[in-house]
Amino acid sequence: MDVAILGGGIAGLATAISLKQIGKTVRVYERRRSMHHLGAGIVCWPNATFVLSELGVLDRLRSVAGAVTAMRRISKTGDELGSLDIRQLDSAMGFPSLSVLRRDLMRILVGRADELGIPIHYGADAAMIDGVQDGNRVHFSDGTSTLADLVVGADGRMNSVARRYVVGNNQPVFQGFVNWIGVYQRDSAFQRLEICDYWGLGARFGIVPVSESTAYWAGGVAIADADGACDLDSIVQLRRAFDGWPVPVGEIVSQGSASDTRRLILYDHDPLPQWHKDNVLLVGDAAHAALPTSGQGAGQALEDAWVLGRELAAFPGDHETAIAAFTQKRREKTAGITLAGRRLAGILFNTDETECADRDQKATRTDYAAMVAGMATGWGAGLPMGIEHRFG
Fold first, then answer.
1. Which residue intervals define the domain FAD-binding in the entry (predicted)?
2. pTM value?
3. Alpha-carbon span 272 to 269, nearest angstrom
């Protein structure tokens, strides 16, 4: 089987590696002219590190990542609201939670693809897909085209050519907030590798260390409409939004500059009932774009790659059955994660002072051990991992 993958991000590269490992002929087409790493960093939760192990890169990830141990919730005034023990999650699921800069994860995936002889064509901007008798033809903006038995659309949430072919609707949904992201470095700044999640009124600031001296961060603020966000002065608005917050936040924000800070206006997609048409299949954000509040964007893209490889291996020579089985196995889980991310965003970016105070009080009463158990069950669904698989 000849497979053309549109998109050279995490979803596309992981899918290429997974399919190459089961003997498929694979090539990747990326619209940008070089490797990209939109986003500052990622927590690879245990479901993600399970897949990265299956792809043969977990040891490489460990060499550049941090083993985060806890996730603390803190109010904008510095009051502790609660703490989740990530080590309990790792124990329950049987794989580590590792924080990594996105650029480092991308280098690892590109390196693995290169080892396997997977060609990555940069500057290949897909413009249209045609269904033809012997497969699907992808047309690129430079006038060239390619024919494949299977086209995998891993071309993102905002302008997916594959999504437009499969479902017609390619309109993302604005979810009412904007994020600023960046990387912060200072010697011995993070003695404990703990995620710190600060909550305010219509605002949130997260700090995720990847080593003792490096962390990535994201500051989010509620905003009424996406068009208005485009008019904001990024750095001025960032500093104004988090003025007076606890010291780590203030220090990070004060050192941010236009050159090393990126602003993202946040969109997702409504869950889709259909992920494929003819021999064109959607994966990653093209199929199920979720908000950062889901914590699972990269994890679910990686799961797509692993499950698709399993289904194609289970139905050799019958990729129509394989992709239908893949969609059936993945759709419910990813829809739940997308909607959970929306719900949490609504809670975190609430602008009602009374409701935010109630939210913070509820956080102090949360059973975090039960939360860990729920995360392990939900994120491990459909994967051969966890205590029951290791010892059952």
1. 2-317
2. 0.95
3. 8
